[in-house]
Specification:
By secondary structure, the chain is mostly helical. The protein is globular.
Amino acid sequence: METSTDAEISPFLGLFAALSYGVSSMAMVFINKAVIMQYAHSMTLLTLQQLATALLIQAGRRMGYTKSKAIDLMTAKKLLPVSLFYNANVAFALASLKGVNIPMYIAIKRLTPLAVLVAGFFSGKGKPTTQVTLSVLLTATGCVIAALGDFSFDLFGYSMALTSVFFQTMYLVLVEKSGAEDGLSSVEIMFYNSFLSLPFLVFLIIVTGEFPGSLSLLFSKSNSFSFLVMLILSLVMGIILNFTMFLCTLVNSALTTTIVGVLKGVGSTTLGFVVLGGVQVRALNVTGLLINTAGGVWYSYAKYQQKKKKLPKSDVEAYRK
């Protein structure tokens, strides 16, 4: 069920949401990698990020800065799967950073657009246009070629990253569906997501044995100014990333959000080679990145042409465009 029309959402808002998500997502990869290199307890880090998000939104609601409503039990039940898929996505992504460098991590995560397209088709959302399909396939092909060009295989890291792709796909599709049908704002979905995830995350850090050792290590590292800065940045950027991701998915679509992630991945991969070092640049890498970028540009052009000709949009491409 659609809750908005093209006239109700400015194209500038869609562009702003996409750019904001791309920039914050790129920054978050490097910040998380920097924190994980010093603090390997990824579940505890995710718990702190979600706790900070929930407290900030609740404080903003109390002070009147946000218009988010109080917790509704029926809405919470509907969004519980969203929260579970989100936390599974982030948890596996953080775990993969322990064994996979940033260029390889980005390359694997670029498979998400193809997964979203396939999930949308089999869930009965309709068939996308030929150009959209081919552009996403080209993007995925570039991702595979780039990965083959820098193959420092780590079974654990690769398994975690691929599992994260699956959960991110389900998560994005569910976010788009809940936003379109329930009329929830990005702030409201973000609050429900954080609130519902906390009991689940606390249970996990206890079962996996991270707690209480993770807190002891956190306190011991609190004397390091550089670590504290990176930790605070991680918490703040976690909030910003969540907001921009939900906003981009609601204003645009799940597929658009993942394509933005693919394009931002090109910049992240390049910076990963330069900033972190230790990664060999090969011709196959460059070829894959060029193909990947071409696929993203083609997708953007296909969407522009579709809107210009006022063709009917399939549900795979947008609920609220």
